[in-house]
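Project standup — Tuesday

K.O.: blocked on the structure for the chain from last sprint. Re-posting the sequence here as requested.
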Amino acid sequence: MRGIGTQRRGCLLVDENRRSPAAVVFDALGSEYEKAFAASETHGASLEWLLERLPPAGRVLDVGSGTGRPTASTLAAAGHRVLGVDVSPVMVEIAARQVPDAEFRCGDIRELPLEEGSFDAVCLYFALLQMSRAEQSDLLRRLPRLLRPKGLFALATVPLDVEDFDGVFMGQNVRVTSFAAQDVIGLVRDAGLTVLSERSVMFTPAHPDAAPEPHLFLHCRREDVGDPGAP
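H.V.: unblocked you, prediction finished:
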């Protein structure tokens, strides 16, 4: 991919000239997205769950890292080695500036070569919604393979049974696809993860054009081969 090896303020740019529909939306939102979701106590609790279980100086992949806050900033401040990946160049630039102790790459996680078994945790917070169901399913099968045995997987999504739904999100036109909660849980389990906890909440982003939305948070673990790993 073009651009690999170009370092800029902690940001590794990958295929900078491509802009997916998600990149267009989040380039436009920039820091407004962070402001809108900063009050999510459930997201904060999810990060605390990870911090209580990660080994010292753990390696963490943050998929859809956005502005770097709160996920990358919280984990890096605790001494963990964070790699954030996002399709939005604007978000990556903001994240690299706000969280200089983490590494960020601008690119599509589905195309980025990453070594299997190389991360202690993977975070996937609200990064699936502008992918097709087939793409979401494929990614949920791939990401757990990046984890070391007993590695942790934290996922958050909007659990709605919708496909190619055209809507408006914080003033931006979006096309959203998602799964119902039980289907998300089934995909995660089919990928070889044990679901240790789940939490469903309603959250209203702090933005005049945002409506209340359901959030599902899952906290999971990759088991050793042949280990049933009861929670």
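K.O.: great, moving the ticket to review. Helices lie at 21-29, 31-37, 41-53, 71-77, 89-98, 133-142, 181-190. Confidence is low (pLDDT under 50) at residues 1-17, 227-231.
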